[in-house]
Amino acid sequence: MTTLSHHDDERLMRFLSATPMAGASLAPLPGDASFRRYVRVHLGQQTAMLMDAPPEREALAPFVQVAEWLSQHGYSAPQMIARDDAQGLMLLEDLGVDSLTSLCRTHRQMEPMLYEVAVDVLADWALGAATGRLSSPPLPRYDHALMMREVMLFSEWFLPQIISDATLAERQAEFSALWERLISDAELQEDVFVHRDFHADNLLWRPERSHLQRLGLLDFQDAVLGDPAYDLVSLIEDARRDVGADLAAQLLDRYLSATGFDRPSFLAKYSLLGAQRNCKIVGIFVRLAVRDGKAHYLSYLPRVWAHLNTDLSHEQLRPLAQWMQRVVPEAARSVPALRPAAPVGAAAGLS
Prior knowledge:
Strand content: 5-15%
Distance between the termini: 25 Å
Number of helices: 11
Oligomer: single chain
Number of strands: 9
Largest sheet: 5 strands, antiparallel
Structural class: alpha+beta
Radius of gyration: 21 Å
């Protein structure tokens, strides 16, 4: 069970004393891959969520900005109750405990419907941007430079685990050059709201609400303006749970039917962004184990590698697939035996 230190307990209680949840009891939630942590607070029959984000690591402003944009356009982001930027504390509406992950585990028959609503939200974001119905939020663009910084996490954290120092720099340069070309040639959009971490753990079911508002949204503080295929591949190629092939195909069909996007063009971007995201995730999970001592994330790597292998089957990714076959053969696409040394590079600072 996650616990709070006496100091943290007192600090959080002082913050709550000036809010409608003064005197509430604290129930910390398990930690995640970020520096943030969450505490559910209880006062009688009322609950709320307390976000604790170290100011030197996690600014509150991006979360607030995106939450306000989502709420203004009719989506279910948690409402802010109180905020202390200096301490990195924010009290939020509690959207409940029924994540898509938990509901698909306990009520398997609900899985198709839950995922369909999630896909409908993504289609609405794409259509809203295309028609001008949704205002453009003041967010950074998911541009070439950002995509490269992310994908190089694979090169900087995973490759050193499997390649000798004598050839590492050469292989890293090859990987970088491949991705520079792939991203340059992809003609990706940079104008649709992209949640950037749109998967079952971050989506909550609110059946008492209507239509798209039934999907509660969390962990959107890293949102950008980018290509709509990114969030769809995040949902379907989930690192933490399996989405069956039949359901995945149905969800792709539903999305394409709703948006009217050209199938071959969209699937090319979907595969490219899937490969970029999954390379990034391999790097992040290795970094979490090596740098942060969170080795349990390595247990997800076989699933992430399976997704990446699927992405690499697309024709446009053949050069990357051939490089992978030469440098990271099937036997190496697993959980590496970790070396303790951490790499140095621009991408190493990404949280």
